[in-house]
Every structure is written in structure tokens, then in C-alpha cells.
Amino acid sequence: MDEQTDKPVDNVPIARLSEMSPTPTLFLPHQQWALTNPTPNPEARHSEMWDQIPGLPTDLKGKVTITLSPVLGVGGNAVVYEGQLNFNGVSHAVAVKVAFIKRDVNGSLLKEETARSVAREMRISRALQHPNIIHCYGMCYDPVALQLFSTIPALVFAQCSGKGAMKYLSNNPSTKRLPLVTGVVDGLAYMHEFGIIHGDLNPRNVLIKIDESGIRAVLNDFGSSAIVSEDTTWLGDDIDYSAPEIKTKESQVTTMSDIYSLALTILAIVSDKPAFDGDYVKAPEMDDSMWKCIVACWAQTPEARWTASQVVSFLAQMKA
């Protein structure tokens, strides 16, 4: 558990979210903005394949329960719990993301900045409606967050049964990689089409969704995402997968820095191992066309890299 949690939470009983929570006044100034879609508003794509629940409100008060241990994941910015969303008599598996309060260089809590960050993530996550992007159902006020992280709301996402891509592939080595790579690229191209930058693309932010339509890759974690027309300062955590031009906190992310990260993410998915600086080697079993695509995406000069739509077209030719 991150040091910001102050104490373990394993002994806190499973609780219905928001029944014990006061009015989340810290988040209120950001709530209206968070629920406003970016411009242009992303179109829904293949809505029959993403996890929509008709009639579900954004405020999920009284509709979500969580299991506090074991956690689904812990990162530098948040902890994610497994939960159940109950609506109209149907239970849906969800992932409940609770943000850690950010701290400045002196260790002081930055509650306002954290509230803005959560609002940004919710705004972007709810706007994106694509089968290769994790679906955000809404927000709730988590008693764990109240005890440890103040009254900033938790975000509720669809849960992916296959969990992380790299772990899934390790356990299922015969899985075909091209469809997964295509899914990652399709999701990223959709984001870029509507002026949204992921900002922290890496294998840990690729999940595996398994349902009646089959197995597909799903992009996750938009806490570092940005809208092109707004402030695009890099907020990501994983410098190993970031483009060389943005490896300082003052750098600006772009769609082309996403493409560099895409190249390393594809390499990791295809080769079954993390891709780091100095380890960019074509595996003997790798298809020459896939290697050509990767090399075109990690060009040192941003302007020389392929766009996401170019990668989509190239992969379509490989599948033909």
C-alpha cells in the first residue's frame, strides 16, 4: 500500500458506498466541469460491445459495494478495489478507483489539485465510448477514501475479467497477438481522432476483456490524459515508456508522444517482455511487417512517427 494511506485498510468492513459519507464539498467546484464532454464530443463506436447500462445515473450513491482485500491494483496515484454495481436488479462487476491525495515537495497534501485531476479523468473517461477503452460508469463517495484520502469521489469502471495484458499473456502464451495489438491501436486512434491524448500508455494500462464477443485489449487509466486544446503537461508515471521529448515534468505531451509509447507497448505485447531503453531488439519469431510498424512509431523525431490512423491502416493490411 502506498505510504500516503497512513494505515492498512484490511480490517475495514465491506460497506455500501456513500451511505456514511458527508457532502463532498471539495469536489463540488469541479463536478459540473467533470460532467461536461470535451469538444468535439467523441462519438460512440460499436456501442453493442462496450459496457453501457441504460438509465444508469452518474452519481452511484447506494449502488456500489466493494471488497477491500485483496485489491485489484495499487499504483503511484490510486488504489483500485473490486466491487459490485447493483442497478435495476442486476449486479455488474466493477473496479473502484480511489485516488491518493497528491503531495508537494514538502509533503503537504494537495487536495485541490487532486480534485482537479480526478475531475479531468472522469470527464475524459465518461466521454470515451469505444470497445477498446475501459468504460466509466460514474462516481461514488467511498468510505475508505473518506477515512484516508478525504472526500474526493472514487471513479467506478467496468471490470475486465482478463486483468492486465502482460499477466494474461504469460498465463495464456498461445493467445494471438495481432488482434490485441489492433485493439490497442484502434482505441488510441479513436482518442486521437477527438483530440484526446492518453499520456501514460504502457502495457500496465492495457487490460484484457473477455466476454461473449471474444477477447480484446482495452485501454485503461486516463489519470494522465489531456485534451489537446487544454494544458497538456506530462503527468504520467512510467518514464520507461515515454517519448524522449517529454521525459521532464515540464514537457508537453502530444499525440506523437503517445505514438512512441505505443511502439514500446506493442513490442512488449508481441515479445512477452517489457521494453526499455536499449532493449529494442527484433525477436526472431516477430513478423517483419510488425517490426516495420514498431520502428516507424518510435522515430526519435516526433514528426517522423506514424499517426495512429496510419498504424490502423497498416495493421488492417497485415490482417487481410
Automatic annotation (TrEMBL):
The keyword Transferase applies. Keywords: ATP-binding, Kinase, Nucleotide-binding, Transferase. Residues 66-320 form the Protein kinase domain. ATP binds at K97. Transmembrane segments: none annotated. It comes from the Eukaryota. PROSITE patterns: PROTEIN_KINASE_ATP, PROTEIN_KINASE_DOM. One of its GO terms (molecular function) is ATP binding. This is Protein kinase domain-containing protein. It comes from Pleurotus ostreatus (strain PC15) (Oyster mushroom).
